[in-house]
Amino acid sequence: MLIQTRTIVVEKGFADQVVERFSKEGAIDSMEGLLDVSVMVNKRAKEQEEVVVMIRWESEEAWKNWEKSDAHIQGHRQSKGQPKPEYVISTSVNMYEVKAVRKGKAVKQ
Predict the structure, then answer these.
(1) Is residue 102 in a domain?
(2) At what angle do helices 70-79 and 60-68 cross, to 10 degrees?
(3) Structural domain boundaries, residue 47
(4) CATH number assigned to the domain comprising residue 87
(5) Could you give the number of structural domains in the chain?
(6) So what's the pLDDT on residue 106?
(7) What angle do CA 57, 59, 61 make, to 5 degrees?
(8) How far apart are the first and last CA of the chain?
(9) pTM of the entire structure?
């Protein structure tokens, strides 16, 4: 399993706009190998707000297929050269290879 995270730090009061954008259905949703997309807001953020988008893929190959897909490339072409919203302070992207997963004992199989 491969997990991609995108952390977006925004000015106070703008997290809901980021959550709305990343919660909408899009081309990625029909991509083979996509497990799920989670959109989370850091409850401990004080001065600014932080939204984390976590995208889980079955494999690195599934993610690479998304990266090479026409839908993904077209989306980047459309936004190329457009300024980011003024309320966005920073964005970072990370990739994680999942090495182990433990389920809670109370989870039914």
Answers:
(1) no
(2) 50
(3) 2-97
(4) 3.30.70.100
(5) 1
(6) 87
(7) 110
(8) 19
(9) 0.88
Output the pLDDT for position 58: 97
Q: Letter for the amino acid at 49? A: E
Give the tokens for residue 90: 């920073």
CA-to-CA separations, 14 to 23, 35, 62, 64, in angstroms, rounded:
15, 27, 32, 31
Give tens-digit pLDDT for 16-33.
Answer: 999 999 999 999 999 999
Which tokens in the block code for residue 104?
């809670």
**Rounded (to 5) percent helix, strand, coil in the chain:** 30, 35, 35
Q: Rounded to the nearest 10 degrees, how much is the dihedral formed by the CA atoms of 96, 102, 37, 58?
A: 70
Residue with tokens 């259905």: 25
Interstrand relation of 48-57 and 2-11 (parallel, antiparallel or unpaired) = antiparallel
91 DSSP β-pair partners: 8
More confident residue, 105 or 8: 8
Give me the mean pLDDT over the 2-10 stretch. Answer: 97
Structural domain contains residue 34: yes
Secondary structure class of 40 (helix, strand, coil): strand
